[in-house]
């Protein structure tokens, strides 16, 4: 059962993501899960050279400082970082999910390039900010910004690792701190894989505490309590567990809620749940109707799609679509008209479009690319509304296979499935399949309307306005929007 902290995280941080008011801070734990060494392991060889065991040292920055002092240069430390951090390790599920989250502010103290590579994998644009000078550069349009506070493996000359580096941080990298403070003041930050012991992060937390002593901004940290299996001595385990409990409570002074996990392997599942929670504010209107065979049935599909699009615009929900014939343009028209009535200032935030590239003349469409686009739409959608889905062959109406594929992908992604069966085509076929199915229709796990509600949406005698009203009621219930 989810804890109170986890429920609050899934609700509040998902809301911040949806409102473009969220940021991420990725710590060493995420890199270790990908196979990179911990800081302690990274400096183990250097410790041996100094006749000091790294596992006995609490201040590892001092160990790096001693190496630099004894050797007279930073070359040995840089060589270790290049050897251990330079090679690319396989991306993890956590890396991939973090890259997909709808935020443009990524912070990290890690040197590796896991974040950049996870962005590259999905062709997401980004700017790397790894020095104070980079902060003054203009952001690339549409790009996320990856703030590498301690530098990057590509530029080892100025990475932060020694005592000197930390003590002189405000002189060499000072501009990072007010920006981090500003984002933690105005946005909700999620810390993943962070111990929260970094001196510069603690400094910013102290500033937040100083400025907002009574009501600090809300932030979250995914943490793992000590486990008995990690200790040989029961008394030591009890002591460490008690320390963790006191530490987690103390985080509340800074507005930080500790979301506890039994194992870091649970992070991908929790982040998947977060993605689905964010998706609940997005409605995908899937469907099509051939323009050359419009008729009364096409008019019905158009009117219903336009009416639902209008309701989505007025309810504050987000519309995602791939510009399907007739249905897509109708939903978009209704949505834009509703936004226009309210000024339309948040159009860029509330409209997600993935147009399907159309072939010219006798050329055939790129089916593989279309399927990839449909998978993306399904992943983004919390609710999938199916309207029409018809094509004509030799003068006969047939079910559009593309809408059927979108239904299968939306079902696999966990979207709430809402076919308007009365609009015919694929929507009618989907409604027939869902009625009486074992897909849950009640409670938090509901992925479809009840049998009676599906039948009401498939009522051929229902008017356009009745179908729209029934569908909108179900959408609001599924998304908790009013």
UniProtKB/TrEMBL annotation:
Residues 266-476 form the NAD(+) hydrolase ThsA Sir2/TIR-associating SLOG domain. Pfam families: SIR2_2, STALD. InterPro entries: DHS-like_NAD/FAD-binding_dom, ThsA_STALD. Coiled coil: none annotated. This is SIR2 family protein. It comes from Brevundimonas subvibrioides. The lineage of its organism: Bacteria, Pseudomonadati, Pseudomonadota, Alphaproteobacteria, Caulobacterales.
């Amino acid at each position: 059962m989810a804890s109170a902290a986890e429920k609050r995280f899934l609700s509040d941080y998902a809301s911040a993501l949806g409102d473009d008011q969220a940021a991420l801070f990725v710590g060493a734990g995420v890199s270790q899960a990908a196979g990179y060494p911990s800081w302690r392991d990274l400096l183990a060889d250097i410790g041996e050279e100094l006749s000091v065991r790294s596992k006995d040292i609490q201040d590892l920055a001092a160990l790096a400082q001693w190496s630099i002092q004894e050797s007279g240069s930073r070359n040995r430390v840089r060589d270790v970082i290049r050897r251990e951090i330079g090679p690319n390790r396989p991306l993890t599920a956590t890396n991939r999910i973090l890259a997909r989250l709808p935020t443009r502010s990524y912070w990290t103290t890690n040197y590796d390039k896991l974040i950049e590579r996870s962005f590259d994998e999905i062709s997401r644009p980004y700017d790397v900010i790894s020095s104070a000078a980079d902060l003054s550069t203009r952001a690339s349009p549409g790009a996320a910004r990856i703030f590498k506070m301690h530098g990057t493996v590509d530029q080892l000359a100025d990475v932060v690792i020694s005592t000197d580096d930390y003590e002189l941080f405000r002189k060499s990298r000072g501009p990072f701190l007010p920006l981090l403070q500003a984002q933690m003041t105005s946005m909700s930050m999620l810390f993943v894989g962070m111990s929260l012991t970094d001196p510069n992060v603690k400094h910013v937390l102290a500033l937040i505490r100083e400025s907002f002593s009574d009501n600090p901004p809300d932030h979250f940290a995914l943490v793992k309590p000590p486990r008995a299996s990690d200790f040989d001595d029961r008394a030591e385990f009890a002591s460490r567990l008690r320390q963790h409990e006191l530490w987690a409570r103390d985080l509340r002074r800074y507005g930080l809620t500790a979301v506890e996990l039994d194992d870091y392997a649970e992070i991908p599942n929790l982040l998947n749940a977060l993605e689905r929670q964010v998706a609940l504010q997005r409605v995908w209107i899937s469907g099509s109707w051939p323009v050359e065979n419009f008729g009364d049935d096409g008019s019905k599909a158009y009117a219903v799609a336009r009416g639902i699009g209008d309701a989505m615009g007025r309810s504050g929900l987000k519309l995602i679509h791939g510009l399907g014939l007739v249905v897509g343009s109708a939903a978009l028209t209704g949505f834009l008209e509703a936004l226009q009535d309210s000024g339309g200032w948040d159009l860029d935030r509330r409209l997600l479009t993935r147009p399907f590239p159309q072939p010219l003349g006798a050329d055939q469409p790129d089916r593989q690319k279309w399927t990839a686009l449909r998978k993306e739409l399904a992943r983004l959608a919390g609710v999938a509304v199916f309207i029409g889905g018809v094509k004509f062959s030799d003068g006969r109406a047939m079910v559009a296979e593309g809408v059927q594929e979108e239904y299968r992908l939306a079902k696999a992604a966990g979207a709430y499935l809402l076919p308007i069966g009365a609009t015919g085509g694929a929507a009618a076929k989907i409604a027939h399949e869902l009625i009486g199915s074992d897909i849950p229709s009640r409670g938090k796990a509901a992925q479809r309307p009840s049998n009676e509600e599906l039948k009401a949406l498939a009522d051929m005698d229902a008017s356009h306005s009745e179908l729209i009203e029934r569908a909108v009621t179900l959408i609001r219930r599924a998304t908790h929007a009013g």
